[in-house]
User: Which sequence fits this backbone?
């Protein structure tokens, strides 16, 4: 059973516009949420995270929003740049004792068109 | 990048042969992970380690074993390779486990089983 879902396999956005990537989760024990970015032939790199005690976290052009009641989070990229073209993975973990692992979604491929 | 190296980077092997992939870190991090990435499946956890000689299974551990005899090395062994194990394998490290700081990933090993 997939606990972290990214239902959009791909997304195309014009340069300068906003990119919105979505992620849903089913495990109510999850309280840490992260976004990773992956370029071809490279490993994923950490982008931004948020804990369940917050509903928004911002880092430059990247903002993550968390809606706990809906079990939904989103990543906003404003303005989008061609270098943002990559696969974005949503990940989650439960911070309770004995939980050491991140669970990842399937990823969304973002294409930013110049 | 961040003191994590995977070897080999590419490997082609025959069905039924054993294969060992190596992950080496210079960060002295306690936690190490092996993931596989496949189209339509995202990143799935194979095994992880929370200390020397301390390992546990992940979501897709069948057909794989691991060993960690020292802090810096985490080995993944495919006991008898099958075509379904053709994939890109990523190692990751973390100082604090699955927290808001996430993992640092290696560059990956592309394994083809023919």
Assistant:
């Amino acid at each position: 059973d997939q606990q972290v879902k990214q239902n959009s396999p791909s997304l195309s956005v014009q340069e300068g516009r906003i990119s919105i990537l979505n992620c849903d989760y089913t495990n109510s024990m999850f309280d840490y949420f992260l976004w990773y970015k992956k370029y071809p032939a490279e490993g994923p790199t950490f982008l931004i995270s948020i804990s369940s005690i917050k509903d928004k976290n911002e880092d430059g052009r990247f903002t993550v929003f968390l809606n706990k009641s809906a079990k939904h989070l989103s990543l906003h990229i404003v303005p989008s740049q061609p270098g943002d073209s990559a696969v974005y993975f949503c990940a989650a973990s439960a911070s309770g004792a004995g939980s050491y692992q991140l669970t990842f979604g399937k990823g969304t491929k973002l294409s930013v068109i110049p | 990048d961040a003191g994590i190296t995977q070897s080999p980077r590419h490997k082609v092997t025959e069905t039924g042969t054993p294969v060992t992939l190596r992950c080496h870190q210079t960060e002295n991090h306690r936690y190490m992970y092996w993931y596989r990435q496949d189209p339509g499946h995202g990143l799935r956890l194979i095994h992880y380690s929370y200390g020397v000689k301390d390992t546990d299974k992940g979501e897709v551990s069948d057909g794989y074993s691991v060993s960690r005899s020292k802090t810096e090395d985490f080995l993944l062994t495919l006991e008898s390779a099958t075509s379904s194990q053709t994939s890109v394998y990523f190692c990751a490290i973390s100082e604090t486990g699955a927290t808001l700081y996430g993992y640092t990933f290696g560059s990956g090993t592309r394994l083809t089983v023919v």
Summary: Chain B has no helices and eleven strands. The mean pLDDT of chain B is 94. The radius of gyration of chain B is 13 Å.
